[in-house]
């Protein structure tokens, strides 16, 4: 009778202690956002991609202000200046992204080799994830080529009408973002199901990545006109700002938190 009463409580106590130790160990291995310092901020903004996202914030903020702050942006001189700023930043951001197709070409070659390889050290464990990433990268590869052509047209470097190429590029951009959303949702569900995510911070990053995908889809729907009048320029502006802010947050450097800090914080 005594063993029947004490033993379950003893096992339960040790089970809770083991669970607590596993939680501390996983949190110690998990990477957290590093504090903001001037050096880290300068290094963060040295990235060409991050600089592009800062300009993107200004660009889409101008678009949202133009839509919500002015009743008639075609006649108001302030609204026309903001509109000029918006389209000039569109052109400048295309220059930032010029020749991005080369990077995608390298990624396509690597992913194809992973799918074809029979070597266990090179073969990917998740073929579906690799196939989705390959489909997204191939779509972006064609998008970048069209985007470069549109830049040459907008900059009057080549004399041709780039409007049809721009519209096709927007549709490809939408398609690539939908593929990326499917891939990230699948990763999120799979990792939750397999209990591979042991800390809240990493789970939050995946959720924010999915939110960024949705914001990008809203922007692409607006520019491609596939949503018709249901998405306004103001909503496109807000979604563009949200996407850029989430990108900068997700790219901020991470580091491991000291175990002593975790002990004080979580015990």
Describe the model.
By secondary structure, this protein is an all-alpha fold. The protein is built from 10 helices and 2 strands, in the order αβααααααααβα. The chain is 77% helix and 2% strand. It has helices at residues 2-29, 38-46, 48-69, 77-96, 100-116, 127-154, 163-193, 200-224, 233-250, 259-266; strands at residues 31-33, 254-256. The longest helix has 31 residues, at 163-193. Residues 22-29 and 259-267 have low confidence and may be disordered. It is globular and about 65 Å long.
- Helical coverage, percent range: over 70%
Q: Which of globular, elongated, flat, extended, rod-shaped describes the shape?
A: globular
Overall structural class, as computed from helix and strand content, comes to: mainly alpha
Record the strand order, biggest sheet.
1-2
Question: Oligomerization state of this entry?
Answer: single chain
Regions with little confidence, pLDDT below 50 for 5+ residues: 22-29, 259-267
Mean pLDDT: 80
Radius of gyration, taken over Cα atoms and rounded to an integer in Å: 24 Å
> Main beta sheet, described?
2 strands, antiparallel
> How many alpha or pi helices?
10
Tell me the β content: under 5%
Q: Order of SSEs, N→C?
A: HEHHHHHHHHEH
C-alpha termini separation: 34 Å
SS elements, strand count: 2
């Amino acid at each position: 009778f005594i063993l029947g009463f004490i033993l379950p409580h003893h096992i339960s106590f040790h089970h809770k202690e083991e669970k607590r130790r596993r939680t501390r160990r996983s949190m110690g291995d998990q990477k957290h956002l590093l504090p903001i310092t001037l050096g880290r901020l300068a290094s963060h903004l040295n990235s060409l991609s991050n600089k592009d996202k800062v300009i993107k914030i200004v660009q889409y903020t101008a678009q949202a202000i133009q839509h919500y702050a002015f009743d008639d942006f075609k006649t108001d001189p302030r609204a026309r200046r903001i509109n000029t700023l918006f389209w000039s930043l569109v052109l400048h951001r295309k220059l930032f992204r010029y020749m991005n197709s080369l990077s995608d070409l390298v990624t396509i070659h690597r992913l194809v080799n992973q799918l074809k390889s029979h070597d266990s050290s090179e073969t990917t464990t998740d073929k579906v994830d690799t196939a989705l990433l390959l489909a997204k990268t191939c779509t972006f590869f064609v998008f970048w080529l069209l985007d470069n052509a549109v830049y040459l047209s907008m900059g009057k470097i080549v004399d041709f009408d780039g409007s049809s190429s721009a519209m096709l590029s927007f549709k490809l951009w939408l398609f690539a973002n939908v593929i990326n959303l499917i891939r990230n949702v699948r990763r999120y569900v799979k990792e939750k199901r397999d209990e591979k995510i042991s800390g809240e911070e990493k789970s939050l990053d995946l959720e924010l990545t999915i939110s960024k995908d949705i914001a990008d889809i809203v922007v692409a729907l607006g520019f491609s006109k596939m949503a018709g009048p249901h998405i306004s320029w103001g909503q496109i502006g807000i979604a563009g700002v949200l996407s850029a802010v989430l990108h900068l947050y997700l790219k901020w450097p991470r580091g491991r938190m000291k175990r002593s800090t975790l002990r004080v914080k979580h015990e």
